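pinned: reference chain
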Amino acid sequence: MLNENHDPTPDQVLDGVKVIDLTGPSGFYCAKLLADLGADVIRIENSGTAESENYAPFYKGEKHIDNSLYRWHFHTNKRSVFLNLQSKYGRDKFFDLLKVADVLITTEPDSKIVDVKLGKNEIRSKYPKLIHTVIRAFSSNSAYSEYKATDIVALAMSGLMAITGFPEDPPNQMGGEQAYHMVSMQGATGTLVALLDRDLTGKGKDIEVSMQECTSMATLQTANLNYYIWQNLNRQRTGLNHPFSVPAADETLPTYPKTLYKCLDGWVSYAAHLAPPGAWERFLQWLEDHDSQQDLRDPKYLDPEIRQKNQNHINEVMAEHCSKLKAQELYHSAQSYKLLCVPVQNAADLIADKQLEERNFFKTVKHDNCSEDFIYPGAPYKLSETPWDIKNNAPKIGQHTKEVLDEWLNPANAKVSYE
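pinned: its structure tokens
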């Protein structure tokens, strides 16, 4: 169970679950998801951690791992244990921790677990109840099994970069380390399923998650694959047009309206292609409210085929309409007519977003030895009886070594080595 410094109430869904985090960046979020649900997640770290994980940006610009906002975000609620896995003492303590752990999470092929020379078969024979979640760049059963990959590599290999950007530009990288987040979420999901299975069978399982496969899901589990298989069409980058706008090579397919429009203070997205029956009339009334309708009241536009053939003109009318107003005004006025026009929000907009505020999405976290409180993003779900929470900020390297060894192993005199 968590130590007495952790608020014991209310209980969380993963209270009592012990997790060892041996991950790199592709698995940071996986372990964080479990920690924020109440699992006691310990990161095994050493003096090399500060060199290999010293990521910007830094609080007040002071370059130090304890000021890394990246570390702050991804290691909330975790505890840090200093162990040199290349030393006999470090390996012995690690093996002792494995005996009482419920979950081990590693990222391969680059993994600290190689320092203890512990393979899959040995884990399963020596620790039969342990759940071992492995986050890999590529499947262990593929020709790429030992290849390394960062977020951008997975985005490129998954096909997502090929469809991101403008037609005249090279493929673009998606922001926010999407590949890392996708594989981490699937890793956490697999871990939760394995915990449930262990409750039923008493046996641990090996979970393998491939970053390329997780990111490929976003490309293939949509109409992209259908277009290619059924019509031999590779979807192209469409910029601000609808994702499934017709490729230039085939003008017989439907043409869609644009999806993004510039407004006075940013951009708005307008999903006209998803509009229900009767939306055209409501769209015209919305335009008229702002004297933006131009000639669209001409009866000829009542014919959907005429509208499709004149989509470029309708786009121009919409663009001029949006250019006169601010994003929030467009958003709320369109919603009053049940039209899908929404602002494209940045981080500052999200902090001020009323919906997120009403949902208590953001969490204020008190940092150890710091007079300031800091705002963290929350979880996109609510558990009524076992709530998600951030109880502690990211630890300093080795901050909880003695504490964890005492709690998990209960030796008479826990001895800490920094060898």
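why pinned: Residues 178-201 form the longest helix (24 residues). The longest strand covers residues 40-45.
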